[in-house]
Amino acid sequence: MLLHLDGRGARYRQIYRSLKRMILAGELGEDARLPASRVLAQSLGVSRNVVLLAYDQLKSEGYISGRVGDATRVCALPESGLESLQERVTMTPEQLPERRLSEQAGIALQQWRRRCSGQREQHLKYDFRYGEVSIDQRTVTLWKRLNSRLFDRSLLQYEDPRGDPELRELIAGHARSGRGCHCDADQVCIVNGSQQALDLVARLLIRPETRVYLEEPGYLGSRACFETAGAGLHPLPVDVEGVDTSCLPEHVAQPALLYVTPSHQFPTGAILSLSRRVALLEWAQRNQSYIVEDDYDGEFRYQGRPIASLQGLDRGLRTLYVGTFSKVLFPSLRIGYVILPRPLIEPFVALRWLSDRQTNSHQQRVLAEFIRSGEYDRHLRRMGKRYQQRRQRLIEALQSHFSERIELQGINAGLHFLLWFRDEALAGRERDLVTQAASEGLGIYPVSSLYLDSSPPRLGLLFGYSGIEEERIEPGIRHLKALCDRLFWSGD
Amino acid sequence: MLLHLDGRGARYRQIYRSLKRMILAGELGEDARLPASRVLAQSLGVSRNVVLLAYDQLKSEGYISGRVGDATRVCALPESGLESLQERVTMTPEQLPERRLSEQAGIALQQWRRRCSGQREQHLKYDFRYGEVSIDQRTVTLWKRLNSRLFDRSLLQYEDPRGDPELRELIAGHARSGRGCHCDADQVCIVNGSQQALDLVARLLIRPETRVYLEEPGYLGSRACFETAGAGLHPLPVDVEGVDTSCLPEHVAQPALLYVTPSHQFPTGAILSLSRRVALLEWAQRNQSYIVEDDYDGEFRYQGRPIASLQGLDRGLRTLYVGTFSKVLFPSLRIGYVILPRPLIEPFVALRWLSDRQTNSHQQRVLAEFIRSGEYDRHLRRMGKRYQQRRQRLIEALQSHFSERIELQGINAGLHFLLWFRDEALAGRERDLVTQAASEGLGIYPVSSLYLDSSPPRLGLLFGYSGIEEERIEPGIRHLKALCDRLFWSGD
């Protein structure tokens, strides 16, 4: 008997799965006799107990039966019948009867597949992916200590869905002093990272007729939330001053929402100018519209004066400010926050409570103590230095290898910047470059995937430098240059 | 100057909030002079530094100004103007311009207010609230140890949105052996508690035309999710055999979904009979419909043979099985799971990833190790004994004090049961009883609030016994009896 074991998990589970698949697929029909456990064990090179465990599981689920002294045989499948079972077990979501899935599930599925196809299977030697975070050993040690010390039975029942009161006070203070926000702790709601913030904001404000204005190119994670909530998406072009407010219609008849990343536009890195900030706020007031300000990486800044948040300029009347700790500490922490205009606090909390009640209380307490003790600020300074060095190394490597052929954009802040090839003839050739690079162990990411309904005028790449070790940067760029020489400039 | 301090948080924040409120409300107009910090400090009985901190904050936000040697004065508010500021700061969600909030936000808000109004402000001496969990000291100690030991930098980046692979294997094994489920780890998705499971399932399957059939009386938490997702709700009556399947229409033209709690119907505690289980599955097959099986407290059983899950009977073809660890370990943990039919796995994961990426990895690892080491089963046995004792004590106290006047329903399993007053003349009198009880420190909960569009035939109360200490049970019931004597039976 030929069993295909998939190599995942315990051996008896592999055998169990393999046999079940054969039964469901009809390869082992009703009354078919399974090999004696001793025989199968020998042929697979495992102990007999492993096979017996698999058989027991199949018996308990009614797939096979067998008394002592008698052979083990495949049972009749239940009335729903072999075909339908087999069909449903191997069905893809698309093969489900029509109208079975919600529209939002269909949209999310597309986004998810797009994201999965962007994940490379192979190991990349030099990976400039955006969104990876460098883990700091000192922070890990401190966090581990707090994590142990602060576990406490007083935090195990349901707590306030808005979040830990001390953490909210600390975040409000940090947002006021560090980001010029205009808020108190009442306006702060803790969520599971900025993605949940965006999803809840979309569910809070979007109606079927709502128009969402957003940046082009822009952040896919927010776009997906607005789209699944049922909004119409209206991209606005971005230039060196950030989103181009002159492209907004003066008056919008439908309910409208603006989504922006003013401190460091994603992905161009442009900082929204003051005059455009005022224009946005005036527009929002004229159209009774809210603005979502996503300050996804406002903590890291290398050159120039920090610009206070749009939320502060607006005095928190029409701006929902979204911040996160995932990019700053570590992604799997899943803690972010929203600062809300007062009339939105109660409905936001209601939706948050409905969606998953609250964020893990113990982790909130650990974060609160990490901030309160000053360790968070020290962490920011350490990481700021580390990222600054990587950024510097990356800029130098790019300039020395590519010199006049490229232009960098958005280098002053954050954890990424854009590279544009000056030669417009290269526009649209990202696929060759990215595919070939990946096959050579080099991870690079085209900016074209962040456009909704236009294409970039030139070939552009998004460079994240927070996840790549410093010593790999220069060799990675050297490799990229060699590749470009082969692909683009072999005739030069 | 009369400052009203609200007593929340640091003193300087209280002063800051109070002054800001007066400025925004126009009580302190433009150019009004604030008292010298020394004077205000004296009148409030705080140190001068506290007042200076509050003034600094107001200055940094542009509400007041003042140079050294000069008085501190209120600034002109920005162009958006005093009225509009004041209006928006004190606005309720209902006063927002029309069509500003989504419909689902409106529905969630109603549910949330209903829940908040059910929360008593005063301390209850005897509280029979359902949903509280008894915290076990041995479990706390063990959890704390694992929590410290397993914190590890390898878990800090983004992980699989479906959850920790080992935890999913363990849950699948537990569901197969303990609940008769028909699944493997591929079908298990980890979520933040069963509430997120229900919310995501609703978002996955509900379209504007979808009809959801659910139990009457039933669980409010799930109803809210289906309603916000836009479904039409169709309650089905419940009797001693569980939901009455004969009330289902033979054929449904629209897409349909069934939500049931077959192992211990919430709130009646009825166990769905085998013939009705088969009827449900046949109905689902006939109408190409999915079934959501919420096994919210399937872990605790005191009498009778455990009935295997509907999901197992169905072989996981049309049943989405929802389980949680919150009710079993502790609510703030926020870890639950869904076992999905295969074609739904991918779209479910897509929605989960879109909604908040993943559950905290470290907590998942701690839970996995807690289960793997056998401590979870030991915890279940300890808690089973404890809850069994409380349940026994509660039943005895009710029977000895009320004897023939009442009837208990659903006592065989779970963490709650129902009490019905036999006297039908008492139907509808829950408000008197509950309000008076609360004012005397006794928390009791009417079953009528769990009906969607009918009323219970008799006065019924939902008794949770997992949150109340054993020694408080008898005195609490004695108190209730005395209250009933006064309210209902004074003329007997």
Features:
homodimer, 492 residues, Aspartate Aminotransferase, domain 1, Aspartate Aminotransferase, domain 2, 3 domains, eight-stranded mixed beta sheet, 16 strands, globular
Would you mind describing this structure in some detail?
The structure is a homodimer. Chain A is α/β, with parallel strands linked by helices and about 500 residues long. Chain A has 3 domains: about 10-95, Winged helix-like DNA-binding domain superfamily/Winged helix DNA-binding domain (Arc Repressor Mutant, subunit A, Orthogonal Bundle); about 115-135 and about 380-485, Aspartate Aminotransferase, domain 1 (Alpha-Beta Complex), CATH 3.90.1150; about 135-375, Type I PLP-dependent aspartate aminotransferase-like (Major domain) (Aspartate Aminotransferase, domain 2). Helices cover about 45% and strands about 15% of the residues of chain A. Chain A has helices at about 10-25, 35-45, 50-60, 80-90, 105-120, 135-150, 165-180, 195-205, 220-230, 275-285, 310-315, 340-355, 360-370, 375-400, 430-440, 470-485, and strands at about 65, 75, 125, 190, 210-215, 230-240, 240-245, 255-260, 290-295, 320-325, 335-340, 405-410, 415-420, 440-445, 445, 460-465. Chain A has an 8-stranded mixed β-sheet with strand order 4-11-10-9-8-5-6-7, sandwiched between helices. In chain A, strands 12-13-16-15 form a 4-stranded antiparallel β-sheet. In chain A, helix 9 links the parallel strand 5 (about 210-215) and strand 6 (about 230-240). In chain A, helix 2 (about 35-45) packs across helix 3 and helix 8 runs parallel beside helix 9 (about 220-230). The first copy, chain A, is globular. At the A-B interface, helix 4, helix 5, helix 6, helix 7 and helix 8 of A face helix 1, helix 4, helix 5, helix 6 and helix 7 of B.
